[in-house]
Design goal:
Helices cover 9% and strands 44% of the residues. The protein is mostly beta strands. The protein has a single domain, classed as Beta Barrel (Porin), CATH 2.40.160. Strands 1-2-3-4-5-6-7-8-9-10-11-12-13-14-15-16 form a 16-stranded antiparallel beta barrel. β14 and β15 form a beta hairpin. It is globular, with a radius of gyration of 23 Å.
């Protein structure tokens, strides 16, 4: 494990040195973390992700994000264009910057369309083959990573219906009931339907160790009720869910199917902004009673001969903490998730593991972002030589509104892989609306 430890310490030391050296850099808003805010700043969903709200689609994506834009001091709302083709009456710089944008997601005053389209080229090369004599199995393929179409319908001033249909990732469908009719410092929202529950930091990369490996992958939406409260800098969310993985439509598992046996997810966060530095600190908790599936993080530690014993029942606990910090052009994110599965069968021991994700991003200029990532996963705390470390470096470029070009290279050190460590390269085009 010494090699993994030395690499981890080296990456973290370099990240710390970059932050210290750039304390005087100026800030340009980019993500909610850079503003010390929640993801609902740009999304309809209280937990983030999916269709964008009016600020996200009309202001952030058009004015603040792309390369070469010059946000005006009043660029917080996009005023409707003049119907006679003349220049905007207020002569705002924000309106002039949007002259080349022909896409309008607002079908009418109550329906909005949106979407995400990611097309990629992926190259993966392990250091070794499956056997000592074999050559490494190289993966080289174009891949449609995401093709999601979003719909949001405002039924009245307090109710919104959202539908998200994905080519690979299934769908989301939920109704959102909100107390206030306009964005406010204090609000109460109730979401009912099928959605991704709030837990930790909802990163766009669903294959992260802290997402897919703990049961929060692209197809792991759940059905239930979620209540989210905003009180100044504090956000709290609690959900009651079926506790199923893999887009399962109906809850038919459980030990006797005569008890309640549901899952509960909770997330609590607090934000602070001191002007020169801003951030967020939070904790998440998840309990699933009577599941019939082991956590994806721990499933590899279960012998295939014992797979049937898992179906007798599993009580799963996830607990985690997360942190975001912004200092000038640098933003740091950290997410930690601990998982425990307690099996009803006496043939299986209790399994415990954890996963972590760290990210340091730098904004050298508007429309360009450089991101360094570090992930770690230990799928069984009682075993040695089964841990995985993955470090990555990505460059993101936003040349025009609704357009992202991204290149990422990663190195994986996997103690439990038969093919050894690996390099991977991912280059993709992302269109978002």
């Amino acid at each position: 494990m010494s090699s993994l430890t030395s690499v981890s310490v080296g990456v973290l030391a370099a990240a710390a040195a970059l932050v210290i050296a750039s304390a005087d850099a100026g800030a340009v808003p980019r993500f909610a973390a850079r503003n010390g805010n929640e993801c609902i700043q740009c999304h309809v969903s209280p937990a983030g992700g999916g269709i964008r709200n009016a600020y996200g689609r009309n202001v952030f994506e058009r004015v603040w994000l792309p390369r070469g834009r010059k946000p005006a001091g009043d660029a917080w709302v996009v005023r409707p264009p003049a119907t006679d083709g003349s220049a905007p009456a207020d002569g705002s710089a924000a309106a002039e910057e949007d002259d080349d944008v022909v896409f309008d997601p607002e079908i009418n005053e109550w329906m909005v369309l949106g979407g995400d389209l990611r097309a990629a080229y992926i190259f993966i090369r392990p250091d070794e083959g499956a056997t000592p004599e074999a050559e490494p199995d190289v993966t080289s393929s174009f891949f449609l990573m995401q093709a999601d179409l979003y719909h949001a319908m405002t039924l009245n001033r307090h109710v919104t219906a959202v539908l998200d249909v994905g080519a690979y990732s299934g769908f989301e469908a939920w109704g959102l009931y909100h107390l206030n009719v306009e964005p406010a410092t204090y609000d109460l929202m109730v979401r009912v339907g099928k959605f991704m529950p709030a837990f930790g930091i909802r990163e766009v990369e669903h294959q992260l160790f802290t997402r897919e490996r703990i049961g929060l992958g692209a197809t792991d939406r759940d059905t239930g009720v979620e209540v989210t409260a905003f009180a100044g800098p504090v956000t709290a969310a609690v959900a009651v869910l079926n506790g199923t993985l893999g887009d399962t439509a109906f809850d038919t598992h459980g030990t006797s199917r005569k008890a309640f046996e549901k899952a509960v997810a909770a997330r609590l966060s607090a934000r602070a902004d001191l002007g020169w530095i801003r951030g967020q600190l939070g904790a998440s908790f998840y309990f699933n009673q009577g599941s019939n599936q082991a956590s994806p993080l721990l499933a590899g530690a279960i012998p295939s001969a014992m797979a049937g014993a898992v179906g007798q029942g599993v009580n799963e606990v996830r607990a985690g903490g997360f942190l975001t910090l912004n200092l000038g052009r640098f933003t740091y994110l950290a997410d930690l998730a601990w998982v425990r599965d307690n099996f009803y069968s006496d043939q299986l021991p209790t399994l415990r593991g954890y996963a972590s994700y760290q990210e340091l991003s730098m904004l050298p200029t508007q429309g360009v972002d450089v991101v360094g990532t570090l992930e770690f996963a230990d799928p069984d705390l009682d075993l040695l030589d089964n841990r995985t470390l993955r470090a990555g470096l990505a460059v993101e470029f936003f040349p025009w509104p609704f357009t992202e070009l991204r290149a990422m290279v990663r190195r994986t050190w996997d103690e439990g892989s038969a093919s050894g460590d690996a390099w991977d390269l991912v280059v993709f085009s992302h269109l978002f609306m």
